[in-house]
Automatic annotation (TrEMBL):
Taxonomic source organism: Candidatus Neomicrothrix parvicella RN1
Protein's UniProt name: Putative ATPase
PANTHER family associated with the record: CONSERVED PROTEIN, DUF4143 DOMAIN-CONTAINING PROTEIN
Annotated DUF4143 domain residues: 197-349
Domain called AAA: residue spans: 23-133
InterPro entries: AAA_14 (IPR041682), DUF4143 (IPR025420), P-loop_NTPase (IPR027417)
Coiled-coil intervals, chain numbering: none
Length: 402
């Protein structure tokens, strides 16, 4: 993206606030998600790695102290953990907020107690663009705020229909202008696999695991199902999965945890960082989704989660799902913000019925005091109350600004 044509990102506000509050801000996220573009707007000087790696390594302390702050180090992980120790030395001597911005595509193995910048830094996660951001509305009032005010239920009784074609439109800025983004997305996955060699992983197995996960999108299945389908063993799955998670390519939706409900599954829902990426790797197009409602349901759910993640991140909340063992009761998405809950079921159809509210009604009966809203998101155009306390709302409301 050209900075002159910059599309506001939801993370821009939190990022600007952190730069005014702490000496070092780390911007993590999947490769090609727009980290450099967003961070560059707030920096006064920049080191781009690997291009400037030799300069940085020649005398890290002298180079970094001579640059006008905030200093952006792009893809900092290519310089190794040593650069963080140099930054620690600098900010310990001068803890001025907004001294350094570090962008990285692969998290270090740990942000634990031995991490040099503990107590001196904060981090934000930049995800691929959601549709609201792609429409240029990333800095406008978001869906969660409109839901909290009740505006969602009164100002958008008839929204736009969320067509299945939207699912194959990637949130990676680099894929957007391509004639066939699937080629770009498959090449992206190949690059992820090839770069895994640096961490002593087999790129063929990494690629195979990504394809299996793309076919299991939004399914809560045991680890054994995954490693058998990928033709690898358990230890390899855990090693490769953790590597892909640190690269922000695999973003599972964890199971919600509570001691108030019994017999809840602990399996996460398998999800890749971008729904279009999952579809490209699985070889599924919009026509196949239209002809297979069950398949469409899984990927529509993944798409909705991807729309919500940046907003939930900015609100300091958490996303999860709930499923009882045996699958008798299921809530597709549980958003927890400061202990208050928003329960969401996602329907790929356009005409939800009261029956579609049954899982949310069950959940409200058991968690009523903590439920802020219960919503069935659907691909149709109408907003209305399905049953007492459960609303049907168009998926398009996630990016609508009116």
């Amino acid at each position: 993206m050209d900075i002159e044509l910059y599309l506001p990102r939801i993370v821009d506000g939190p990022l600007s606030s952190l730069i005014q509050a702490v000496p070092v801000v780390l911007v993590d996220g999947a490769r090609a998600s727009g980290k450099t573009t967003s961070a560059s707007r707030l920096a006064n000087s920049t080191l781009r790695l690997p291009q400037d790696l030799a300069l940085l390594q020649s005398d890290p302390l002298q180079v970094l102290t001579s640059m006008k702050r905030p200093v952006l180090i792009d893809e900092w992980q290519l310089a190794g953990i040593e650069v963080l120790w140099t930054i620690k030395q600098i900010v310990d001597a001068d803890p001025t907020p907004g001294s350094f911005i570090l962008t990285g595509s692969v998290e270090p193995e740990s942000y634990g107690s031995t991490y040099p910048l503990t107590g001196r830094s904060a981090r934000v996660l930049l995800r691929p663009m959601n549709r609201r951001e792609k429409l240029g509305a990333g800095n406008e009032v978001g869906w969660l705020d409109r839901l909290a005010s009740g505006e969602i239920f009164t100002t958008n009784p008839n929204g736009d229909r969320a067509e299945l074609d939207l699912l194959v439109e990637s949130g990676f800025p680099g894929a957007a202008p391509k004639h066939d983004p699937r080629e770009w997305l498959r090449a992206y996955a190949s690059t992820v696999a090839e770069r895994s060699v640096a961490e002593r992983r087999d790129p063929e197995r990494v690629g195979r695991l990504l394809r299996v996960l793309s076919e299991l999108e939004s399914q809560a299945v045991p680890d054994e199902t995954v490693w058998r389908a990928a033709d690898i063993n358990r230890e390899t799955l855990y090693s490769y999965r953790d590597m892909l998670a640190r690269a922000h390519v695999v973003t599972p939706l964890p199971a919600w945890e509570t001691n108030r409900l019994k017999r809840i599954t602990s399996y996460p829902k398998r999800q890749l960082v971008d729904t279009a990426l999952a579809l490209a790797l699985a070889g599924i197009d919009a026509n196949e989704l239209a002809s297979n409602p069950t398949l469409a349901g899984r990927y529509v759910e993944s798409f909705v989660v991807a729309q919500l993640r940046p907003e939930v991140d900015a609100a300091g909340g958490y996303l999860s799902h709930l499923r009882t063992r045996g699958g008798d009761q299921e809530v597709d998405i549980v958003i927890d913000i400061g202990g208050q809950l928003i329960a969401i079921d996602v329907k790929a159809g356009v005409n939800p019925t009261p029956r579609d509210a049954r899982h949310l009604s069950w959940f409200r009966d058991r968690m009523d005091a903590r439920i802020d809203a219960s919503v069935v998101l659907h691909r149709g155009e109408a907003t209305f109350e399905l049953v007492d306390g459960v609303w049907a709302v168009p998926i398009s409301s996630l990016w609508s600004t009116s």
